[in-house]
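User: Can you model how zinc ion sits in this protein?
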Amino acid sequence: MIFKFRLPGYVLAAAAVFVPSICAQQDPRAVQTPGPQISVDGYTYTQRALFQRNIGGPDDMTTPFPPHKIIGNIYYVGARSLASFLVVTPQGNILINSAYERNIPLILKSVEQLGFKLSDTKILLGSHAHADHQEGDALFKQLTGAQVMAMAEDVPALENMKPGGKPHPIDKVLHDGDEVTLGGSTLVAHLTPGHTRGCTTWTMKVEEAGKTYNVVIICSLGVNPGFKLVNNADVPQIADEFTRAFETMRSLPCDVPLGSHPGMYNMEEKYAKLEKGGPNPFIDPVGYKTEIDIDEAMFHAVLDQQRKAASGNAGSPDATH
Ligand SMILES: [Zn+2]
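Assistant: Here's the modeled complex, given as structure tokens:
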């Protein structure tokens, strides 16, 4: 059997395993082991490989990617492995994911390269309360005055995110199914918990060439290396929360999958096609389902492994009392 690894070249080329301070809470030692392996559509992934696919190599989170129009009024203004999206409306713009504080100059430059102004950002949203997606919220609000809105279940984690001692701004607390509307565009906040308690998948309808498309910005369905699905002291029901997220994700209509890390939707490959013209490569309903299949298979593989390890311990003579 031939295993194919669907990973960008820069990830495969990375000789050293890069342990970032993000998508945090994992034990850095856990990243050194490949973890369980799954196969979907003839491609094979280990837990570590999927994590690496998302975060890229050491510089990919802070290296700009060419800003581009995705579809309708949604634009990419992020880094190679950290996505930031700009929704442009006649009444101002919405940014999704301020990323790290150090990414804000990169976002500013990308927004300006596209001919827009960062100061026109009226609303700041985020994928989830990890530093690589939302550490920059306080600085971004200082720069633009944008209203920061966050899912209720992520508020405690966001309040603990204080770069340079700055309190995390939260102007409006959102709940599952809440709508955020500006200038004729509406984003719907879907609670897809597990990766964080308030992990938020955003959906939006866009128009292009007289057609309407459903866009889904995947929060994350990833189980990071070292993350405890079993015997998780902070959230004992964490596996149930992940299960709920998969159900919600499968219920969402999707023509255009996007995600908090571009690897979730093969951005590089699609961007290369965009340059060549032809049909919009970001329209990829099959890719959406495949991404959920990959993440769900990995979730079950990790859960099985951790359950076996836990029951192995429970079954030992010393652990019965
Ligand atoms: Zn994360």
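A couple of observations from the model: The first helix runs from residue 9 to 13. The first strand starts at residue 37 and ends at 40.
User: Helpful, thanks.
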